[in-house]
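Incident log, structure service

09:12 report received: a user says their structure output differs between two submissions of the same chain.
09:20 pulled the input from the user's history:
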Amino acid sequence: MTTASARVSNTASSTASGRVPVLLVHGIDDDARTLAPLANGLARAGFQDVQIVELKPNNGDAPIAVLAGQVAEAAGSLRARTGSSRVDVVGFSMGALVSRYYLQRLEGRNHVRRFVSISGPHEGTLTGWLRANPGARDMRPGSELLRGLAADEAPFGEVQVFSLWTPLDLMIIPARSSRLNGARERTIPVVLHPLMLRDGRVLRAVEEALTVERPEDFTPLPVVVPPGGP
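09:34 re-ran on a clean worker, output below:
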């Protein structure tokens, strides 16, 4: 098994207070720079502590479970540094699945207030067959990891869960695999998977999910799939 270590980067801060610290988790082949637009946007919105977990390795050579351990370590460090009993977690693509594993298998549900998934392969993606490494195998439809997570009767405990995804996704195939049972859901027709982290509608939706008073006030939108779409 590949040994992986977590590096937490302070990417943004503000002078405002009263926000829950936020941990951001990137996707496959990404790094902290990928999440910079989201981190900076949250800082401008008044979040005092926004940090990014930089997963090592980032190419799928480590299983999802190993990467989730890095998220657990980073979340614990963030809570210790800020004195907050809970953090919010936002995961993109593979990072959303890594974060979900942390919640369900590594007691993350006891330390997380809200979880926002952005285009995560929660029911697998056919692109997982393009690589033969452990992380990619975990993301294939019907993998042992995905079956196990889906079998949990109460997977998130008291964590408030949100899912943002695009029906036009060509990285998560089929795109509807980004849907997450029990989540407050919003579909945003972004044309490319990586652009989910730069689209203003997505950035505003993340901010709303983290600040809305009640999860039910985060209005779900109907799933609109264009003709011939996924």
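09:41 both user submissions now match this output. Likely a transient worker issue. Closing.
09:42 reviewer note: The chain is about 30% helix and 15% strand. Confidence is low (pLDDT under 50) at residues 1-7, 10-16.
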